[in-house]
Design a protein that fits this description.
This protein has a single domain (about 25-175), classed as Protein Transport Mog1p, Chain A (3-Layer(aba) Sandwich), CATH 3.40.1000. It has helices spanning about 1-20, 95, 105-110, 165-175; strands at about 30-35, 40, 45-50, 60-70, 70-75, 80, 85-90, 115, 120, 125-135, 135-145, 150-155. Strands 3, 4, 7, 8, 9, 10, 11 and 12 form an eight-stranded antiparallel beta sheet that branches. Strands 1-2 form a two-stranded antiparallel ribbon. The chain has a two-stranded antiparallel sheet with strand order 5-6. About 25% of the residues are buried. It contains four helices and twelve strands; from the N terminus they run H-E-E-E-E-E-E-E-H-H-E-E-E-E-E-H. Helices cover about 25% and strands about 40% of the residues. It has about 180 residues and is of the alpha+beta class.
Length: about 180
Amino acid sequence: MKKIAVMLWIASLVLAAAACAKSPQTLPDGMYNVGDFTVFVPEGWTAIPVPDSDDPSKILTNDIQLAKDAVYNEAAGTWNTDDGVSFYVTLLPQEDFERVPSGREYYAQDFAVTDMEDLTIGELTWHGFSVRPIGAPVYMMWAARGNGAGGYYTSISTAYGMSLEDADIRAILGSLK
């Protein structure tokens, strides 16, 4: 009888851990620990872990999607972020970070690209450009961490008239160190 109770208890722990991986959780102070960095998640936003494309059972520790007004589709096991603001943040090692600006040419093949003025928020200065593949601008930005430690790359799709001046977006960018 004790063996059955212990096995049920272990099974419940395994199921709880699996549920946590599919249901992102934010720390009480609004910070989300991605693994390689932390990021602020404002109220009304969801931190969505990004699975490894080679092994979807693994969650990347250097990549996170933040979404405003995201809706979880229980049947499909996916998040619908099409109706809100989607915000990807990736922490890149130095060798990959040095290649980031070359992404501009990729987008310029199909879309009008507009260079941005540098934007300093908190400890980071962001560089980048915007494109309009969906009507609303998508901002492609990067910021170095310093000391050859690579940097952050972010893609911000702004629906509903949000901009880089939005308090939530500025709080997210300012939380990265």
